[in-house]
Each structure stands twice: as C-alpha cells, then as structure tokens.
Design a protein that fits this description.
Length: about 500
C-alpha cells in the first residue's frame, strides 16, 4: 500500500487530500483564497497565497492522516485554467495571476478575431476565439502594463506555479496549453505561431507534459516549508474540471457530468475531439479520450444571490422552522408546477460563457405577475439553470457526440428538488454520487498513476461510489419542452438589447 497527496488550487479555496491505494481518503483540509476584482470584470489572485496555503495544508494533512512526510509516494496538483502566472528572469512574480474568469479583454479578443480565420483557429486549436484564451490577456498586459510585459521570462498556469515552488522545475500541463490556445491538435505540440499571437516568444513557455508524467522532485527548500521529504516525485497535474469529472466516473465515451457549483459545468468523454467554437476542448486523463466541455458562468451563484437579496423573510422563516433557507425555498418550489406558472429566468448574472460566449448577456426574469411569490422565482431559477444544461446536451447531440449516461456532482446535487427538475428537463436519468471530494482526489490519483503505485485508470472506482438514480417524470416533458423553447427565444429576442443596457 502507498500514500499520495493531492492539491487543488481552486477559485475560492486551496484544498488538499491524502489517499491510500486501497481506496481510502485519510485526510482532507482547505484554506480560503482571496479573489481580487478591483475593476469591473477583473478577476485576479495572489499566487503567493496559494503557496502559503499549500505550506499550511500539507503539515495539517500529514498530522490528520498520522503519516510522516517520507511516507508520501508522490504529489499531484490540480487547478483552474487557464490562469496566467508570470515570472521574470530571476523567478520573481511580475503581478497577481489573471484568472480564467477575467473579462477585461473584449477589445483584444475582437482584434485577435480580426487577425485570424476563426473557423480555422477552432479546427486547429480545438477552441474558439474568446476571452478564455491567453493571447488576449497578454495583449492587454502589453498595452496597459508594458514594463511588466517586457520582463516576462516564464508563462504558465496556477498548478504549474505550485509545481515549480515544490520542485524548482518549470513545466506546463498540456490542458493548460490547449485551453490557452497554444497547442496544434494535429500533433499535440505547442505551435510557435500560435504563441506569437500573444506577442511573446515561444521560449517563455516551459516544456509540455502529460498529466501523469513526473516533472521533478520536492526540493530541499520545499521540503523544509511543507514537511514533505526531499526527492518526493511530483507529477505535472491536471485541470481541476477534468480531474473532478474523472473522479466522478466520466471515463468512457458517452459519460457526461453536470457540475452544480457556483458556475455550472458540463463535461463529456469522447473518442474524437470534434472542435466547435461554442464549447471548450480538453484532453481526458485517460489516454486516447477527449473531453469537450462547457461552462455556464452562473449556477449556484444565482441561487446564493436570490437568497441574499430577495428572500430575507424566507431566511427568517427557515430559521424558525429548523430548515436551511435552501431547504425551505426548495419546498416552496416543489409545490409548484413545471414552468413555474409562466416564469422564465435566464441565469446570465455574470454574462454567459458557453455556448453563447456573450459577456453582455444579463440575468433576466420575465412573466412576473402579482400571483407569483418567491417560490415561483426560486423554481424558475432552478429550471433556468437546468435549461442551460439542456442547451449543452442538445449541442453535443448536434455535433454527433452521444450522451449516454448523466451524472451530477458538487453542492447543488444535494437538492433533490433541483435534481428532479434536471432529470425532467433533460428527460434522462441522472445518477448522483457518494464520497466525491472534488478535483483534489483526481490530483492524488494522477500522482499514484505517475509514480506507479496504481496501474491504470479504472481503480478510481474504489474511491467514489454511485448514489441515488433520479428518474425523469415523463408527464413533465411537454411542459418543459414548451418552457425550454421560451427560454431560448427570450435570449434571442434580447441579445441586441443587453449591450445597450450597459450603456
């Protein structure tokens, strides 16, 4: 039996886990991360805070697991992508990271789209010309922070940075480079002409690695800071959404995961890449597979906003009855018919990523009457997010990518009311999960594969077990087909109005 350690450099927290190769999670801990948004649309974080969190988490994890640092066979790190982390020639950070959700580069995206053939760019890189790419962020820096831009010596991502702090070795994991827009799908290599679109030299990018490749070993300095043993192998790591989907059971073509976090993610395992500008594309952890995926900018974040801003009386009533606010609002919504008595909510509170790629889109509620209450609005929100997932499922089918099995994970999957709505909207069974701690488990598993402690990818089934199967109510299909049509039409009718609302 061997032990590995996984770290997740997440959007809201840094999470760590220790596992053994028998399928047990021995310790789990987290530390919060500060998101800096000093201008509208900006999203930045301090990489030094990630490292400080790692240095605090690892000793805690080892103590909880009752293990010395020397017992850890390998370390894996996962994180959001494509975050942009920049070092100068001396290895000093040039600035805070620019996160994948940052929306400052509208002008740069437009300029890039005018320079390249967008259709050819999608075919070649697997991803469309949008604000997810790294080149527009680099162009923004060149324009607004030219002194820092000129000093760029290393460009990589969040988990690449932590790997460097652990090992002193600079590398990039291939999904960071793919979503950054620097990889040519034809050969899987970084293409100098694609890097040049960011107006930087190709040599600022470190060597490309597959997720489970060992890129170095824990240095003496990192060992002193973390409690790990010097020489502990470190693998290249993985994108957080890919690691999380793998842990959830998305391992065979046609497996589809719906993630109900602050944002809403949908990830599908396929044998072919099938690039399309409406989706993102990543490599699967399992060799030979791909993972086209989408991200709705707001999912649970919409519900949190509704609770905080529109439901103070329900919060008080829930406290008096021993319920949580979410439980009470779910109960109110469950008593209402499909379609929320004519309410439609578009959950575009932060604009929308896939499949619209429309940062100007806005949250919209139509159909309100004096007969509606907070329960109607809550149900319309649950249904609106479910409609967003249905839009992605139908897009995958349009592209000839079969969706055979649907699973659900993350916090929102705990709502039985919401999961029943999702199953009814999709008219597909939805499988819930038990014991899914998130992407950190995927990082620890990749480390185990990389160091040879686990052979192959199927043993992940030891760690996460299937839960309840939510079956669709066929009697709700007609109502939801009608409401979904209205949901799609509402956006199309308001699409040209949204930019005018912003002035």
């Amino acid at each position: 039996m061997a032990f590995t350690l996984g770290l997740d450099i997440g959007t809201t927290s840094t999470i760590g886990i220790v596992i053994d190769t028998e399928g047990r999670s021995l310790a789990l801990a987290s530390r919060p991360v500060t998101l800096h948004a000093e201008q509208p649309g900006w999203a930045e974080q301090a990489p030094e805070q990630w490292w400080a969190n790692v240095c605090a988490l690892i000793p805690e994890l080892l103590q909880t697991a009752g293990l010395p640092g020397s017992s850890i066979a390998a370390v894996g790190v996962t994180g959001m992508l494509p975050a942009v982390v920049l070092l100068d020639a001396e290895g000093q950070l040039l600035r805070r990271s620019i996160q994948q959700s940052d929306g400052r580069t509208g002008a740069e995206v437009a300029a890039l789209a005018a320079e390249v053939d967008p259709a050819d760019f999608v075919r070649r890189t697997g991803n469309g010309v949008n604000q997810q790419l790294v080149a527009p962020k680099l162009r923004w820096l060149e324009r607004h922070e030219p002194d820092r831009f000129r000093r760029i010596a290393t460009l990589f991502g969040a988990y690449d940075y932590i790997n460097w702090r652990l090992t002193g070795c600079r590398s990039i994991e291939r999904n960071w480079a793919l979503e950054a827009g620097f990889v040519d799908l034809a050969d899987g290599r970084i293409a100098p002409d694609l890097v040049a679109l960011g107006h930087v030299r190709p040599d600022v990018l470190p060597q490309l690695h597959r997720a489970d490749e060992i890129i170095g070993a824990v240095s003496a300095a990192a060992a002193a800071a973390t409690g790990l043993a010097p020489g502990t192998p470190v693998v290249a790591g993985a994108a957080d959404h890919i690691a999380s989907a793998f842990v959830a059971g998305i391992r065979r073509p046609g497996d589809c995961l719906l993630k109900f976090g602050g944002a809403g993610d949908i990830l599908l395992a396929t044998t072919t890449p099938r690039p399309d500008p409406r989706l993102f594309l990543d490599y699967h952890l399992v060799p030979g597979l791909f993972m086209p995926n989408g991200c709705m900018a707001s999912s649970g974040a919409v519900l949190n906003w509704l609770v905080a801003e529109l439901a103070p009386q329900e919060v008080q009533a829930a406290a008096a009855s021993g319920e949580t606010p979410l439980q009470r609002l779910d109960r109110l919504a469950a008593a209402l018919p499909p379609g929320a008595d004519g309410l439609i909510l578009l959950p575009y509170f932060l604009g929308e990523k896939t499949p619209l790629h429309d940062p100007a889109a806005r949250g919209t509620l139509i159909g309100l009457g004096l007969h509606h209450g907070i329960g109607h609005i809550w149900r319309a929100a649950l249904e609106g997010i479910a409609f967003g997932f249905r839009q992605h499922v139908e897009l995958c089918q349009e592209l000839g990518l079969p969706v055979e099995r649907v699973l659900a994970s993350d916090g929102g999957a705990a709502s039985q009311v919401w999961m029943q709505i999702v199953a009814d909207v999709l008219q597909r069974p939805v499988r819930l999960l038990r014991g899914h701690p998130g992407a950190c488990l995927g990082a620890a598993y990749v480390a185990a594969v990389g160091c040879g402690a686990i052979q192959g990818w199927d043993a992940i089934e030891r760690f996460v077990q299937p839960g309840l199967l939510v079956t669709p109510n066929s009697g709700h299909a007609k109502a939801y087909d009608h409401a979904f049509g209205l949901y799609r039409e509402t956006y199309l009718r308001l699409k040209d109005l949204y930019p005018r609302l912003a002035g």
